[in-house]
Amino acid sequence: MIPPTLTKSATDETSLDFPDHALARVRDILKARRNFDIGSYKDKYLKRRIAIRVRATHSATADAYCELVARNEGELELLVKGLTIHVSQFFRNRPTFEKLREEVLPALFERLRCDGRDHVTFWSVGCASGEEPYSLAIILRDSFGEELKQFKVSLVATDINEGILNAACTGAYSPERLAEVPAGVKERYFSPVGDRFLLAPAVREMVEFRRSDLFNPDSSIESDLILCRNVLIYFERGEQARILHGFASSLRTGGVLVLGKAETLVGEVRQRFTTLCPVERIYQKSRFSVY
Questions:
Q1: In degrees rounded to 5, what are phi and psi of residue 208?
Q2: Quick one: 118 and 57 in the same domain?
Q3: Whether 154 and 224 share a structural domain
């Protein structure tokens, strides 16, 4: 039998044909060795990301790459990183953060005062190397100093990749990750160390990083604000709906959900939210949810 070869597509020179049986074997290896279930990801996305590792390791066939992953811990770790890491920046899509600063957060804190609450929870989902939750922490320090004194603020950031979470905790970033940082913020909160920039301890200490699987109900966090940007696009529509229903259940009444610019609410979960800003994909959990 001729082994399945990896051939370049006529329409996409960077894409490789990674057959279904090989994808199934990679899925089994990841589940058994890392307890990482990729069954909910889009096959097209998975094959594209795995193909990058196939090329990087000069594997001649899909089966040869599967053998490499099965026996090589280093390659297994690189594959996990390749499937889960999403390049980010501080204040990525700055208009979203400005909307949070100018409208969403002031309204949220005012509602907490009216409700007589003294604590608030922010949850950054799929936080990768930490730029998103740290950006929110900087906004809180710069614009909501009185609220930080008045309320106990929990800022939790989760991701499935433990290695990238460890990197996030160190708070050291290459210059391109700071390209969108507003004027003055870089000088106040970052110190140059070699060819990188180290985030100030006062900001790092505001964020608690945890390993978490989106599809594990026990990992949900009761929250007032959930940031989940550019994560849903990697999942099939049915799984997107499942995740969104989970967010609706995790949010306190009146809580806010922020998605990525290419994402939106799908299916029946729309009934559980009202739209605060369609452009920035910001939604509020309805007080009159039918669920």
A1: -105, 120
A2: no
A3: yes
Q: Which residues of 202-236 are buried (b: 16+ CB within 10 A; e: fewer)?
A: ebbebbebeebebeeeebbbebbbbbbbbbbebbe
* Contact residues for 217 (Cβ-Cβ < 8 A; gap 6+): 246
139 lies in some domain: yes
Regarding pTM above 0.70, the answer is yes
- For residue 21, the tally of other CB atoms under 10 A from its CB is 11
- Give the per-residue pLDDT at 97: 97
Identify the H or E element spanning 282.
strand 282-285
- Spell out the alpha helix ranges (H) of 151-236: 162-170, 185-189, 201-204
Residue 123: its H or E element = strand 119-125
Residue found under tokens 């990674």:
18
CA proximity to 264, closest of 225, 232, 220, 227: 232
Helix (H) or strand (E) segment spanning residue 173: strand 172-173
Residue 85 zone, left/alpha/beta (φ > 0; ψ -120 to 50; rest):
beta
Over residues 174-190, the pLDDT tens digits come to 999 999 999 899 999 99
Residue 272 neighbours by CB under 8 Å, 6+ apart:
245, 248, 285, 286, 289, 290, 291
Domain limits for position 60: 20-84
